[in-house]
Amino acid sequence: MLVWALIIVKLALSAIILGGVVYYFLGIVAAHKLIRKRPAKFSDKNLAISILKPLKGVEEGLEKYLESFYNLDYPKYELIFAVHTANDPATEVVKRLCSRYPKIDARLVVAENPPYANAKVFSLEQMANVAQYNILVITDSDTSVSTDYLNAIATAFQSENVGAVTNLYRGVGANDFWSKLEALGMSTEFMSGVIVAEWLEGMKFTLGPSMAIRKSNLAQIGGFAAMADFLADDFVLGNWVAEKGADVILSTHVINHHATSPGFLQSFKHRLRWNRSTRFSRPSGYIGQGFTYGLSWALFGALILPFPWGLAAFLITLLIRFWLALEVGVRVLADKTVFKNLWLIPIQDLISFASWVGGFLGSEILWRNRRFRIVEGGRFIPVETK
After folding, report:
1. Helices (H), the chain
2. Where are the domains of the chain?
3. Which of 359, 361, 352 is nearest to 296 (CA)?
4. Of residues 231, 193, 237, 230, the one with CA closest to residue 211
5. What angle, rounded to 10 degrees, do the helices at 2-37 and 309-325 form?
6. pTM to 2 decimals?
7. How far is the first Cα of the chain from the last one, in angstroms, to the nearest whole number?
8. Closest listed residue to residue 136, CA positions, set 74, 215, 228
9. Considering the domain 40-264 in this protein, what is its CATH number?
10. Could you list the pLDDT tens digit for every one of the 386 residues in the chain?
């Protein structure tokens, strides 16, 4: 009986490794197709746009990230920032930037006493209430962009069938080793999954670093208030827009998502929070996510499968994983750090795999110094501490 159990384990592991290799090849093909779809130039500057920026506290580099939105080469846009208290240190950053760029239409909203579990969503609702324009662009505080960012978004909205737009992004690490590792995962692992999903089934979600929506489509899905109890507000926004029949577009214009979680523990907690949110938002998809960890499974195979076949499977999988990282990270995202950090991919993939396993082992997360429990459907509720 033990012999048969071991044979079954080895066959299952071999099948999973093969599935991981197939997924890597799908990512390589999807990357090539996406490159061919990239427009030669952006062509629309007619839409007026409101940019909504929820803020809380001051992470390293915040002023530099926000300043990139004051330097956009676009004729008509406004910047709206939101904090939860007037004494939030982020208000001083916004005031300095507004003083430095007086010609940019910018304002600050104080969204006090948020009644929603997702306080960020309450900030978005308050900003949307004062936004002048029909296109709402939502970006995280740890995002920076190039001068033609809004032009790319406006171009994507040329068709009236488009209800929401989201962007590719490259991970940008700080000086901390663990944030660099997390950024490498963003550029070579997470973005690979995004472009494979876009190729195989079209975009059914948006990505938090940059998502844009028409006010009419926002109203159609119930406004921001409908997302009050959802942790993955970025996923549900795009998902609900797609369910209503509008198109969700993945813009090939690449922005920067800065990894700002210092140290191993903070970085791992960030990964774990994202995984647990995904597990409850997309249960079947989360199980399927296991096949994307081909390199980690191949490492187990090198230890368990007969020599030299286990070692050969690992080395082949490693080479194909490197190929995928170069295609997506370098060719699609123009991330100049990927090539020199290629040797770190096995470490990054193992940590990512561990956080995926951790996603199955609990339902609680720590977010903005508060503890929450995620429940069925992706909603989350505060955990009362005694």
Report:
1. 2-37, 62-67, 90-100, 119-130, 149-156, 177-185, 191-201, 215-220, 233-243, 263-281, 283-288, 294-304, 309-325, 345-359
2. 2-35+280-382, 40-264
3. 352
4. 237
5. 20
6. 0.93
7. 50
8. 215
9. 3.90.550.10
10. 677 777 788 888 899 999 999 999 999 999 999 988 877 667 766 799 999 999 999 988 999 999 999 999 999 999 999 999 999 999 999 999 999 999 999 999 999 989 998 999 999 999 999 999 999 999 999 999 999 999 999 999 988 999 999 999 999 998 889 999 999 999 999 999 999 999 999 999 999 999 999 999 999 999 999 999 998 999 999 999 999 999 999 999 999 999 877 788 888 888 998 899 889 888 888 999 999 999 999 999 999 888 898 899 999 999 999 999 999 999 999 999 999 999 999 999 999 999 999 999 988 887 777 788 888 888 888 876 55
**Phi and psi at residue 229, in whole multiples of 5°?**
-110, 15
- Could you give the 3-state DSSP secondary structure of residue 173? strand
